[in-house]
Amino acid sequence: MKGLMKYLSPFAPDQSGAVSVLFAMGGIIVIMDAGGCAGNICGFDEPRWLEQLYAPDLSGGECASSVFSAGLRDMDAILGRDEALILKTADAAAVLEANFIALIGTPVPAVIGTDYTALKRMAEKKLSLPIIAVPTGGIQLYDKGQEETYLAIIREFAGGCEKGEPDEKIVGVLGASGLERTSREGFGPLIRRLDPEGKLDVRIFGDRLQDFRELPAVGRNVVVSPSGITAAEYLKDRFGTPYEIEYPLPETDGARFVSHPGRKILIIHQAVLASALKKRALEADPSACVCTATFFMPLDGSGERTDIVLKDEDDLADIAVSGGFDIIAGDPLFRRALTGLSGLFVPLPHFPVSGSLHVPASESEFLQAFDDGLFS
Amino acid sequence: MSEPYFITARALAERGRDEMPAQSVPSKALIYSSPATLSYNSPGANGFGVKRAGLVIPESVMLLVSPGCCGRNSTILSAEGGYSERMFYLQMDETDLVTGRHLEKIPQAVREIIEVPEKRPKVVLICITCVDALLGTDLERVCRKAEEYAGVRVVPSYMYALTREGTKPPMAAIRESVYSVVEKRKTDPHAVNLLGFFAPLDDECEIYKMFPAAGLTHIREMSRETSYEGCLRMGEANFNLLLNPEARSAAEDMMQRLGMPYIELTRSYDADVIARQYKLLGAAIGVEFSDGEYRAEAEAEADSFRRDYSGLKIALGQTVNANPFELAASLAHLGIVTERIFSNYSADDYLYIKQLASLSPDTRLYTGISPTMALYRPEGGADLTIGRDAAWYYPKAPNLPFCSDRQSFGYRGLVKLLRGMREELESGGQPV
User: N or C: which end of chain B has fewer CB within 10 A?
Assistant: First the structure.
C-alpha cells in the first residue's frame, strides 16, 4: 500500500534538511510547530546540536544556531496568529546575538496555508536581522528541505550581488549538509581530497554565512548530493559559476579485491554518493553489473543517472525478489524490509534513514565496510 | 538582558496562583531547545512518549497515521526501546492534508499490519497527530470501521501536541486510550488497579505488602500484565487508585463508563504526608493499613541523612520521578537547601511553591524553556543535582537521575531517593 511502512520507519523530513543546512551559521532557527518537530530535529536529526552544546567549537562551522519551537497551540493554528509568532521571535532576538532568523515550516502551517512570503515580509519589518523562510511541511524528505533552503539563503544573501570576477582557488561544495555526513568525522576527508595540496579555499556551503555573501567570487562548485543541484544551476545562471556533480572518494586498492565475474550489485544511498560507489565498485571489479537506487532525489540529468527510484517500502521488497541481485548495499534498517533477499546484504549507513544508530566513526570505516562487503 | 530569567520561590508565592509570570507560560514565548528541555519538546526522548506509552497494552501494535516527520524519532527510540517491530506507519501526502483521503486507507492498512508479527496482535492502536486535529478527524468512527473490516480491536489514540496546555494534553489522552480497553466485569471486592504510570512501581514499594494484608489481594497495573486477557481483568477492580494526575481523565472515564470509582494519592517524599495519605485512604475504603514498619524505616533513613548531610546544596531538574517543587519542599524539612530548580511551573504547582517559599524562600526557579536560557552558564555551587536534565546545568556536580521507567512511591520511594543521593555523594567525587 502506498505510504504504508511495515518494516521501515520514516526518513528524515524536509524540515530536518532545512535545519541541517542552516545550523552551523549562528542563527535563530524557529521551528513553526507545536513542539514535537523541534524535539525530533534537536534530539535525532541534528547531531551537531548536542555536540556543540558540550563542545562549542563546531568542526568547520561558524557557530551553532539556537533552535526554538514556536510552541504553536490549537488557537494559534485556527486563528493564524502570524503576528504573535513574529513578536515572540523578536523577543528572542532581543536577548540573543544571531546572524539571521530562519522560520522553518512544519505540517501545522502547511495545513493552515501559511503564506511564507508574507511572513518573511512581516518579520523583516519588525526585525533588523536577515530573514529566511522555508516552506517545509514535514511531508517531503530531507533533501527537498535542503534544496529549498540553499535557494532561500542564496536569494537572501547573494540575490542582489553583481556578477564578479571568479577566483579559481575558491571551490564551493553544495549538498554537504550535516545529514549527509557519512561518519562522525564530517567532511574533513572530502575537503582534503578536493584540495590535496592545500592551495585552494574549499568552502562547504552551510559552514559560514559569509560564504553565501561571496558567491560571485566562487571559481567552481562541486555538488556532492542531489539537494545542491538546483542551487548550483541557479548559481551557474546567475554568476556563470560552473559546477560538477560528484562525490570524490579515495582510490581503491584494486589489488586486494577478489573479482566475482558477472555479479549483480545494487547500491542504495543518496544518488551522488551511490554513483560514486558504483564507479568504485566497477573499478574494483569491471565484470560486475552495478545498479544504483535511492528513496531520495535521483540523478536524471545528462550525466550519471540513478537506475532505480524507490517510492515506497514495497518497491524495496519487490527488488529483493525480482531484481536478482547477488548483493544489496544499503542502510542497515533496509535489511528488515528485504524479506525476499536471497543474496548478501552489505550495511551502508545513511543518516536520513537510520539516524545515529549506525554512524561509523570515520569515513574510512564507512568505505572499508563497503569494500569488504562487496569484494572480500 | 545578560542572564536567564528566574524568580525566587518567595517572589513567586507572593504573586499568587493566578499571577504566574509570562516567562512560565509556554504560549507567551518561543520555546528554547537545550538537552535539558529535550523531553519537553519530544517527551519520548526521555522515557515514555505517546507511542511507547500506547504500546503498554499487552499484545498490541500501533499504526501512526501522520506526515513522515511525526514518526521520525521512532526510528531510534523504537530500536533502542525494543518496540520497533510493534510500530507501523501510514504516511500522509500533501493531498491527504487537504482532503483527508488517508482515512480511507486505514482499514486496509490495519488488515495488512496484523499479518506482519509472528503472533497476531489483539489490539491495534491508531495514533493521529496535529494535522488530523486541525482536519477535525473523527477517529473513533474510523476505528470502528477498521475494527469491522480487519476483525481486531482497534483503539483510537491522539498525539496532539497542539493541545499540550489544554484540558487533555497528549500524555493524558494516551492514558485514556490505554485504559479504554478495560471493560466491565463482575466486581471483585479484593481487587484494585493502580493507574497512572506506564511501568510498574518498584517491586519494593510497600503497597504490594500493605494492601494484601488489608484485604486488597489483587493489585493490578497495566504494565505488569503480559497478555491482553490479563489487562482485561482490570475490569474486575473495586476501585482505581490514581497515582499520577495525568491519569485523572482516564480515571474519570472509567468511572463514567464502568462505574469504577477512583481515589487519588499524590506522590510525596515527605514521610508525614505519605502517612496521612494512607490513613485517609484506609478511612475511605474502610480498612486500616499497617504502615508502621515502613514509616519507621523511612524516618530512620531521613534522620540519618539529616545528620550526615544537613546544609547540603542541591539543584533539581524536571526529568525526575517527582514533582520538583514537592521534592524541594520535602527535602527542605531534612535541612537540604535547593538552590535552583529548572522546571516549568504552573498554577497546579502553587501549593508546593508556597510551602517551598516558607522553607527555602531564596530558591531560584528557572523555566528551562525560556529563550533566556540560551544565556545560561553554570555558576554557583551544587553538591548534588537530581533529575537527568539537571546534570546538564551543573556538569561537574554528582548527579542522581532518579528518572527510571520503574516508579518510586511511598515510604520506600523516599528511602530509595535518600539512599541514591547518599550513594552519589559518596561515589560521585567531592562537592564542587
Answer: N
